[in-house]
Amino acid sequence: MDIKNKSITSRDEDFARWYTDVCKKAELMDYSAVKGFIIYRPYGYAIWEEIQHYLDKEFKKTGHENVYLPLVINESLFQKEKDHVEGFAPECLIATIGGGQEIQDRLIIRPTSECLFCEHYSHIINSYRDLPKLYNQWCSVVRWEKTTRPFLRGSEFLRQEGHTMHASEDEARQETLRMLEIYDKMGKDLLAVPFVKGRKTEKEKFAGALETYSIEALMHDGKALQSGTTHYFGNGFSKAFGIQYLDKDGKIKNPYQTSWGVSTRLIGSIIMVHGDDNGLVLPPYVAPIQVVIVPIKMNEPGVLAKAKEIRDELINAGFRVKLDDSDKTPGWKFSEYEMKGVPLRIEVGPKDLANNCCMIHKRNDGTRTKYELNNISDLVKDLLATIHKEMYNAALKNLLANIKEVHTFEELKEVVDKCGYAKMMWCGDQACEDKIKELTNATARCIPFDQVEFDDKCPICGKKAKYVVLFAKAY
């Protein structure tokens, strides 16, 4: 039987092509008939499900409830918050005909759901006893992008978006930062991706927000990827939408609002942080298949039975396992599951049976080691934990090696041209931010929380520096 061709473009030869090759050949997605709208194939969607399971559990620990609001927003409703409208108007897909008749108040396919939640909250928040409202939604949104790339930027993408209302400014601010910490923890515990986190500049913040915070990941090619955001809105939206409540002191007040979200962009982050020239390398706890079992010479007595026995033991122990007992060659199977990034491959054949052992291949470093079959569940648990730690540490090492302090515009340009984070002291003037983008195509990714000053002047304008900022080219 022919071996299936799994050749892909080298990352260093053409990173963009490599990325597309992996998305397609690992069967994560396919292109639909409508440009910019992709099909999430089972393997790709299963990664998103693992992210959902993790976050949903964390959200519920903190008192959040899941809801689902409509796909469409009346245009008149959408226009209630001026800054919000201006930020999203260029990306809106608008329905103008329904049932063969023109729709008078046109319907915007949601690019985000702040307006929908505010309208709903205006009906159900009346008293301080109704607060806080801690809602979360799993949905898709549509943003009519000119240039698209699977998972990273699409005309439609899957996402999670939390929308909360609070009685005090302090409580809302705490919520904004608490959710950022949950996202950061997800990176470390689930994705094996270390994030840089901090506040967005005024230029880069979310439309209508007073403050936006983000988690930023660094890809293999040195570009940054905004991987999640949290927003503090103050009470501007609640005033615009007439959300009021009677407080304990007998006064009518407007609540304070937050929103926060991540999307299937996280799948792109996993691919580009961990992947190699053989395809995906999936962190164990987000991998749809954690262990694949490949029987060798499975027609010989006892081989397939032992493979099934190992599978059943591991499934009963709670692992996600696949036994490939198809008639394809072992070489084909090895290539297939390397492309799919399965963290562990267990090989068992006649010689292994005779010695009560198996061969185990670690996808992240390619090592192949003989182990006894006794206590296979404990062994797999330990190996998956080791792989996760190794992958996180490798990504962290790469991140730290690619954050460079810069003292001049020339140094900044050199760093971002080679790709990586340029750590710069900044005066806070948007004109300097605009100049950097114009001349280098780099943007301010965030103002990190760790503000240790290392210069007293902004290298762009020479004025007094106020903030440490990370600049980088980004997806």
Describe what this molecule looks like in 3D.
This protein is of the alpha+beta class and 475 residues long. An eleven-stranded mixed β-sheet has the order 3-7-8-14-11-10-9-22-23-21-20, sandwiched between helices. Strands 16-15-17-18-19 form a five-stranded mixed β-sheet, with helices on both faces. Strands 4-6-5 form a three-stranded antiparallel β-sheet. The radius of gyration is 25 Å and the shape is globular. The chain has helices at residues 15-25, 42-61, 75-78, 82-88, 114-124, 169-191, 236-240, 265-274, 303-316, 330-339, 350-354, 376-401, 409-418, 430-440, and strands at residues 29-31, 38-40, 65-67, 72-74, 93-98, 101-109, 133-142, 156-166, 196-199, 211-218, 224-234, 245-246, 252-253, 256-263, 291-295, 321-323, 344-348, 357-362, 368-372, 403-405, 421-426, 443-448, 467-472. It is 35% helix and 27% strand. The relative contact order is 0.12.
Gyration radius (Cα, Å) is 25 Å
> Largest beta sheet: what is the strand line-up?
3-7-8-14-11-10-9-22-23-21-20
How many β-strand runs?
Answer: 23
β content, as a range? Answer: 25-35%
Strand and helix map with partners:
Layout: H1 15-25, E1 29-31, E2 38-40, H2 42-61, E3 65-67, E4 72-74, H3 75-78, H4 82-88, E5 93-98, E6 101-109, H5 114-124, E7 133-142, E8 156-166, H6 169-191, E9 196-199, E10 211-218, E11 224-234, H7 236-240, E12 245-246, E13 252-253, E14 256-263, H8 265-274, E15 291-295, H9 303-316, E16 321-323, H10 330-339, E17 344-348, H11 350-354, E18 357-362, E19 368-372, H12 376-401, E20 403-405, H13 409-418, E21 421-426, H14 430-440, E22 443-448, E23 467-472
Parallel strand pairs: 3-7, 15-16, 15-17, 20-21
Antiparallel strand pairs: 1-2, 4-6, 5-6, 7-8, 8-14, 9-10, 9-22, 10-11, 11-14, 12-13, 17-18, 18-19, 21-23, 22-23
Helix pairs in contact: 2-6
